[in-house]
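Example 185.
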Amino acid sequence: MAEIRTVTRSPEATTEFGRELTARLRAPMLLLLSGELGAGKTTLAKGIISGLGAAKEDDVTSPTFTLVHVFKRQADGLKIYHVDLYRISGFADLESLGLEDALAESAIMIVEWPGKLTLRTDWPVVRIHLEHRPQNGTPLENEGGECRQITVLDPADVLRDGGFAVTADDSKSAKYKTTRGSDGC
Ligand SMILES: Nc1ncnc2c1ncn2[C@@H]1O[C@H](COP(=O)(O)OP(=O)(O)O)[C@@H](O)[C@H]1O
Ligand SMILES: [Mg+2]
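Predicted structure in complex with adenosine-5'-diphosphate:
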């Protein structure tokens, strides 16, 4: 199982990390983005959807009220579903979301608040957890800081087939350094 962990120090860095990930994404794939409110799930989704070439960064907004946004890449018709289940009470499945046909296609589905999703699929699943990271010993409750830790869990190693290999050692490379820098992140 591959795991990548990184620390970002700005929303732009989180978006950029999402863009980089897209080199490894192949449809069909389900990306589950977990983490508290404000952890950066939508910010990461901006990078993923724009990196896939399906929308401009600014056109990716939170589907908090509509629950689902669908993007289509002009070049090949690839569909990207951006789902946010924050406002759902109880559990949702693809039928209640009107997405029952989605699994018949080869799409990329990004789900925020995946704990509320009841889903049976044979699509490869990649889990991405985002969390606030205390800065210079500031308590975690202080969510004003810009440090975020992002952990990508890829149990079936499906990201390996992408543009470049993911190895467990990625987290040790300078690029994905998670030791604290002088900024305290
Ligand atoms: N390193 C960072 N990564 C992502 N977002 C950050 C970061 N630092 C600060 N932010 C801010 O935190 C907020 C994250 O919001 P959002 O992506 O909508 O979170 P979520 O979808 O998890 O609720 C934004 O206001 C963003 O500007
Ligand atoms: Mg969000």
